[in-house]
Amino acid sequence: MSKKSEFEAALKEFVTTLQGYISSEDGQWTIKGFIDIYKNIYTISSDTKIISKILEIHIFPKLLELSEKHGYKIVLADHQNYYPDISFVDNDDDSIRFAVDFKTTYRQPKKPHLCNGFTLG
User: Fold this and answer.
1) Is the pTM of this model over 0.85?
2) Per-residue 3-state assignment (H helix, E strand, C coil) for 16-62
3) Which of 11, 84, 95, 103 has the fewest C-beta atoms lying within 10 Å of its C-beta?
4) Which one, of 80, 78, 64, 90, lies nearest residue 7 by Cα?
């Protein structure tokens, strides 16, 4: 099996585990808000940019586990809004790289089998 096929299979398997990590059995988000140094708690708004960033931060430890398990290191984008969000770089051959860019959207309440469109930069 090629490195590309192996990585693709590992990433697809990884994605199937995320829902159980970021939400409870009844579909509630596991992260409910922000806390400041004074212990004030702020709920998360429905702003998709905020939700997207929280999800990225929340799943990052899992991404590290995935990379370590399969022999990759993670390289982050140098600047905000640069493509890709992260790159998986083979530990033994840094010419082998896989770009991963995070995209999020939301489901439409009246059509739960569909999701809203994505913005593509």
Assistant:
1) no
2) HHHHHHHECCCCCECCCEEECCCCCEEECCCCHHHHHHHHHHHHHHH
3) 95
4) 90
